[in-house]
Amino acid sequence: MPSKRIFLWLVPLLIVVLITSATFLYPFLRARYLLSQLEELQINHSTFEDAQKLAKKIGAQEGSFTKCTRAECEWYKITDNALVPQWYRGKGVSFAVVITAKDSLVTSKGVEYSVGVGTPTVGEAFIGRPRVYVSQTENCFKWDEEKQRKLQEKFREKFPDIVETPVRKGWQKIWCKDEKIASDAFAVCISTRYKSTPEDWKKYTAFNYSCFWKYKGCSYGKDLLTIADPYPPRPC
What are the residue boundaries of the structural domains of the chain, listed by start? Predict the structure, then answer.
């Protein structure tokens, strides 16, 4: 019967459409999910056990640099669109969340969105992949303050006080090749000392998720976060 033949023809087609849709959409949905789960953790309020529970929930791994204890631990979870055919996705994109706990409390959380999937090539390992890193911690100027303190002790003179702001951001690196940008890295650090923290976090994690599914994907950190600062004049 014609209706039966049409049905038998449509079923395989429907399966192909569903598999294709899942391949393209799952990484994007997974990235959104991972980001939403980070909202559960509050800096210097959430405990080691809270972070450990969330890490287990999202399938995060412990960092390999130090042994995971209440004194110090780091967890990370990565998702990417590596299953999308390379001829379509281009270099592809990866999305990672990172949680750090020290002295039994969560001290920072962050998100890295980058161009590229899998193990970096030699070139990528050398210059770094184009990426955006957004983190939240109590004090984004702690390293600068410590450096200034050591300089003051060394030279025995008072330096101007460091002016803290709710958000510290900027281009960490712009690597050029043949007078064209080859790689870039934009970083945002949001301090939890200010009431604007929730709004700032929402603003700077408004990523361009279309990089997961659009043809040839994205090429630069600027593509991943459209509100990133403009490049400095003549970056190359």
Answer: 2-224
pLDDT in tens, 119-135: 888 777 788 899 999 99
Contact (CB, 8 A) for 112 and 131: yes
Q: What is the DSSP letter of 223?
A: H
CA dist 23 and 27 (Å) reads: 8
Measured in residues, the chain has a length of 236
The whole-model pTM stands at: 0.85
DSSP 178: T
| Beta partners for residue 187, in sequence order | 133, 170
Q: Phi, psi (5° rounding) for residue 131? A: -160, 165
Residue 112 burial (CB count, 10 A): 20
Which helix or strand (DSSP H or E) is residue 185 part of? strand 180-191
> How far is 217 from 213, CA to CA, in rounded Å?
7
Which amino acid is residue 169, in one-letter code? Answer: K
Task: Kindly report the number of other CB atoms within 10 A of residue 207's CB atom.
Answer: 22
> For residue 116, what are the CA distances in angstroms to 79, 92, 95?
11, 5, 10
* Average model confidence (pLDDT) across the chain: 84
